[in-house]
Write a structure and sequence with these properties.
Two copies of one chain form a homodimer. The first copy, chain A, has 377 residues and is of the alpha/beta class. Helices cover 48% and strands 11% of the residues of chain A. Chains A and B meet through α10, α12 and α15 of A and α10, α12 and α15 of B.
Chain lengths: 377, 377
């Protein structure tokens, strides 16, 4: 397997040490000096500088669709904290929006589509969007962020999963349990597979374009995959994640870019997710990460899995719980520290500093000495 | 172990056949003629007769606190469908209400407490309520339902778990993730343990009183246990479920009444839940029930685990998915069929008939012949 494109800074080291290297080495299950960390929704409302830029933009949509502003908020957490990766500021629903569904946000209600997909004809009309034209603002933002990052840390591009996109596309917005969408999948699987097939091609095309524009890792958020019973998860979500992984491996730009899959709550299906050929799996906080490692750690790296609620506790508790996750994973290569879900708006930014320092401080322990030493799987 | 009190009908058979016997036999992992079924929230808004009685009562609280009306709605689903158990119509928050917290319901927002627990002094003031005085309406309803059921099917009494009650008692109402309560547990575990200790004694006393009044099985709903990381789940939920199980085994009325624990989403901790000494565990739909059986089926019966969304699909799909759950559990004793969560208000009652018939129809298959045959664990 060829190596991912290296950061353009002069600081690149082959031993996995240093802020610019740890994340990609960990994704390849290679030795690192300390466990790398980034945080889901790290560019978000808990940061006063984010709220200021958001205010300036006028709306979430305007913020996300203006490359200069998206770049600015992407960099904010990397400048404030010693994080080991940046993730593009964007939304999982850009692809269906580019398909013409009309994404907008209703205050207090979350994302909505003006033209949800309801009939066979609606689905027949869907086409795979060309990212450089319909999603130019994402591609421009990726290029801009890469330039502004100057190789400090790698940039993660991302998309929503085919199943999760389908949930919103059919429902027209959020739902507590997406029970109607599940019932449709059960009653008319052919129709659902048609929609998921289009979504999978669109997501693969979109992620490949992000890789071509400079994204150094790619992540798929399958936010609602865990709502499916395992048999349905295999049929309606995992299958299409596997298709995307395959399409990306055949792409000249994306083939060397590690792919991270995160199906929140689908803990019964970790083995099937690892079988897709992805580089890494996200793990929420309801499964001990040590158990996840024993189940699939020979095949993929793991990303997670601190309970986001811990970030509301005191600094001492944050340090203790971070250490618990690190110890649970153990002295093996292949761990990217993260929360088990996005950081919430009520977290004190100072607590993020505490967490990042706590994770990086493990350099000095016996466990990490073993971690640096290497391939002891 | 002594046997649970038998239904007062003359139809009792020791071979586990017949509507009045299957449920209790299955909970004891004894052979049954067909797999028994009941449905969480079977007395609920999807039934027009429920909506009529609820209208008459004026409010949910009035309905639940008037024994005659609570009895009426408890019996409605048993009269309409061939279900194998009745569950008392009540609410998981009756105990904190009896502690003086002031339970009320806000339209569209769910349960609220007027006087949430916030300080050490608030917790010091809490006392274990005497069920026959403070919760007389529940005790009267249990006695009335037992009389009206005339032994047709067993009656399940229930309570909320100490952890789940604590979530509402501290937060003062529902929450998406109860992150504040979790942070409090991390920051001040001593205070949380004080609260959970009182809750555990109160719940055990309440369940024992329901058994004395005639409940033939007892269930604890740990609705928010699955939001906890496994280590926190052990410390703040499972431990107290174990205390309750122990207290009930020492109670003259409850010692022979099977106890069912349902910690929704806590699938990483099934073994620890089985270790509490309960008779059965509820299993949500995100874990294959066959896998749950392989993990803990030698120690406990299992209740579940059809995805509630299936009830919105067509009758053919309902039959197929019911069969999938039955086949996945396999030809072993110890299965009580149920949904993996409560039935939703938008389900067509006719679909419940379809499900109940489908589950009972498995009598005629080879799989069920083996199931009737017995102890092949």
């Amino acid at each position: 397997m060829s190596k991912p494109p290296e950061p353009d800074s002069g600081q690149v080291r082959q031993d996995g040490s240093g802020r610019s290297n740890r994340f990609l080495h960990a994704l390849r299950r290679e030795p690192v000096d300390v466990t790398p960390i980034w945080i889901m929704r790290q560019a978000g409302r808990y940061l006063p500088e984010y709220r200021a830029t958001r205010e300036l933009a006028g709306s979430f949509l305007e913020l996300m669709q203006t490359p200069e502003l998206a770049c600015e908020v992407t960099l904010q957490p990397v400048e404030r904290f010693d994080l080991d990766a940046a993730i593009l500021f964007s939304d999982i629903l850009t692809v269906p929006d580019a398909m013409g569904l009309g994404l907008h946000f209703v205050e207090g209600e979350g994302p909505k589509f003006s033209r949800p997909v309801r009939t066979h004809a609606d689905i027949e009309r869907l086409a795979v969007p060309d990212p450089e034209s319909s999603l130019w603002y994402v591609m421009d933002a990726v290029r801009l962020v890469r330039r502004e990052l100057k190789g400090r840390v790698p940039l993660i591009g991302f998309a929503g999963s085919p199943w999760t996109l389908a949930c919103y596309m059919i429902e027209g917005g959020g739902s507590r349990d997406f029970a109607r969408v599940k019932a449709l999948a059960l009653d008319n699987p052919a129709l659902m597979h048609k929609l998921l097939g289009v979504n999978a091609k669109a997501v693969a095309t979109y992620l490949a374009a992000q890789a071509a524009a400079g994204a150094q890792a790619l992540m798929i958020f399958d936010t609602w995959g865990g709502l499916l019973a395992p048999a349905m998860f295999l049929e309606f979500s995992q299958r299409y994640l596997g298709q995307i992984a395959l399409l990306l491996r055949a792409d000249p730009h994306a083939c060397s870019v590690p792919l991270i899959l995160f199906s929140k709550g689908a803990n019964a299906s970790l083995e099937a997710l690892a079988d897709t050929g992805c580089a890494a799996l996200g793990v929420d906080w309801t499964l001990p990460i040590g158990e996840a490692r024993r189940r699939v750690g020979e095949h993929v790296a793991l990303q997670g899995n601190l309970d986001p609620a811990v970030m509301l506790a005191s600094p001492d508790v944050i340090r203790r719980e971070a250490r618990r996750v690190l110890d649970d994973f153990g002295p093996y290569p292949g761990h990217v520290f993260n929360l088990g879900h996005g950081i919430t708006p009520d977290v004190d930014p100072e607590h993020v500093s505490v967490l990042v320092e706590a994770v990086h401080a493990c350099r000095a322990t016996a466990g990490t000495a073993m971690r640096t030493a290497g391939n002891a799987t």
